[in-house]
């Protein structure tokens, strides 16, 4: 049993264009070394993969928060990647995480190309 503890897992897309904005946001909202980070092309699009990572972070690092971030102009979504589709997928992902892990606080965001994070509720 691991004694390591992380406050959160932060799930984002792999898109290189947004890493600077993501890093800045994380540094403004989390202390260094208090989070796990997972990146997948499409953010929450591949929900099963994300749920596996959340399970690992929860079991090994006893997280209390899950942060899910999708972004504008995501190539993995292609033409279906409208703001409405991202919001719908983020809400579905949040619901699924809450189903499996009712003790975890889940926050969802839509990241704009200008680096601004829009909370999705």
From TrEMBL:
Residues making up the signal peptide according to the UniProt record: none
Gene3D superfamilies: Carbonic anhydrase (3.40.1050.10)
Pfam families: Pro_CA_2
Any GO MF annotation of the entry: carbonate dehydratase activity
InterPro entries per the UniProt record, alphabetical: Carbonic_anhydrase_sf, Pro_CA_2
Protein name: Carbonic anhydrase
Native source organism of the sequence: Candidatus Daviesbacteria bacterium GW2011_GWB1_36_5
Lineage: Bacteria, Candidatus Daviesiibacteriota
